[in-house]
Amino acid sequence: MRTPFDPSVFVADRLQNVPPSGIRRFFDLVSEIDDVISLGVGEPDFITPWHIRETCIHSIEHGETAYTSNYGLLELREEISWMYDRKHKVEYDPASEVLVTTGVSEALDIAIRAIVNPGDEVIVSQPSYVAYVPSVIFSGGIPVPLSTTVENKFKITPDELEDVITDKTKAIVFNYPNNPTGATMDRSDLEAIADIVVEHDLMVISDEVYECLTYNGDHTCFASLDGMRERTILLNGFSKAYAMTGFRLGYALGAPEIISSMMLIHQYTMLCAPVTAQIGAIEALRNGEAEMQKMVREYDRRRHLIVGGLNKIGLECFEPKGAFYAFPSIESTGLTSDEFSQRLLNEQKVAAVPGDAFGKSGEGFLRCAYAASQDDIRTALDRIGEFVDGLK
Amino acid sequence: MDKQLSHILEILEGDARAAPKDIASLTGMSVEDVSKKIEQLEKSGIIRKYKTIIDWDLVGESYVYAVIELKVILERKYGYEKIAERLYKFPEVRSVRLLSGGYDIALTVRGKSMKEVAFFVAEKIATLEQVQSTTTHFVLKTYKEDGVILHEPEHIKRLPVSP
Ligand SMILES: Cc1ncc(COP(=O)(O)O)c(C=O)c1O
Hints:
The structure holds two protein chains of two kinds.
Chain A: H1 13-16, H2 22-31, E1 37-38, H3 50-61, H4 74-88, E2 98-101, H5 103-115, E3 121-126, H6 132-138, E4 142-147, H7 158-164, E5 169-174, H8 187-199, E6 203-207, E7 232-237, E8 250-253, H9 256-269, H10 275-287, H11 289-313, E9 325-326, H12 337-348, E10 350-351, E11 353-354, E12 366-369, H13 374-391
Parallel strand pairs in A: 1-10, 3-4, 3-5, 5-6, 6-7
Antiparallel strand pairs in A: 2-8, 7-8, 9-12, 11-12
Helix pairs in contact in A: 3-10, 4-10, 5-6, 5-9, 11-13
Chain B: H1 3-14, H2 20-27, H3 31-43, H4 56-59, E1 64-72, H5 81-88, E2 93-98, E3 105-111, H6 114-125, E4 131-138, E5 144-145, E6 148-149
Antiparallel strand pairs in B: 1-3, 1-4, 2-3, 5-6
Bound molecules: pyridoxal-5'-phosphate (PLP).
């Protein structure tokens, strides 16, 4: 008898090493329960500002539906370049140093593929966004976690960074303002990291997709530090600041040699980012500041509400200064992150992602996204309070 | 404008009933500071009034609204002030605006029926000696009032959990 056909033996070995996504697993659990209040959503709850949507509709009505340059519309690259010059005093040539991508997600993937050889080590600061480790694995690299701690406000410290650098280290990936902790790093913190980067001759992939969402002082762009422009692949996009997640638009900035290598992959795998989204992005950069700042002020109010509420409940919460996440410690309850999230979901119908989904160093914490209405946040806090009281 | 001030105003603009305690928890300010700030805002006239937007149609009390355009003859000494004052004293008149362009003043008038509004305009407004002409437009449906969309379609669903 012939053995039955088994498609799974065709799956590439490399994919066997990718750990299952903690978020995916949690998503499946949440989907089975009705009337859940979710603090688990990593995207704005605002709808894209109308002027941006309207511009996109208008462009479709006028038939702007063709491929664009592989790099993205020149007009958009120019807007991006002007913004960096204006905001961060970093100059990027729109012709050779800006690549428009399908979200930061694509930019991240091709940035890593462009620089990582099999066996290269890539340091990934954690807790952090879930795509970094798999992206390194996809390109045959070896992800090396760098744990940040609440004691250091979830910043990368020079000593801890030095500890994980080896002669195989090629690059470091980090993300400030940070998902899931809400941590930010000041200019002086980043300068200390820049010194080490130069000393060990590393590349940096800096995911600054939350740059507009800061609440205490302005964001420092890593590429604006002395000597860092050429060493940094800067990733940014429109998903968070302009509530444009479904448009799928981001970009990468960097040295021409790096950007053209990323472009080599991009032109064959993506061809170009969606044109309608690019047109919306131009509108966002030209006329979106006021609406965006309005959303930022609303996030700031929710931030006060949720951090104050969590601390009152007795879940000690470090003050997040950016993004839209609070990251309280649940250690005082004696539960693991996973137990806490699952029981909170089952007993009180509140969804919040267990911290260990973002790396081992997230254990003992819970990610509570405050991209939710004030009413939902208040109800969620009441329920979390009840849950925690019930544990005593 | 300082950050805390704009927070307080935006919160109250969205919900006139927000209590100082609520505002404190949304801004990190103390309840006393919030109360003090609001008192200042009321005194200085920045906060004029706390208002409720009511959909009278749903109550069954259907009012009729009309927008009235007026052309007026100016009095030498007083400019538009005098006529504006005459107009805004009528309780039927809900708003009075001086405009640039083809006519001078726009009113919104509220009444129980079209007849009542039409008579009010004919008897009380058109007969004022500064009023040269009136054009009455009845409101058929209000879609948005004071920045509030009255019949908004349901919100788009997001995934319950995302990275
Ligand atoms: C840190 C971080 N980087 C990248 C992304 C993905 O962004 P995009 O929608 O631009 O692909 C996210 C989305 O959650 C994120 O949190």
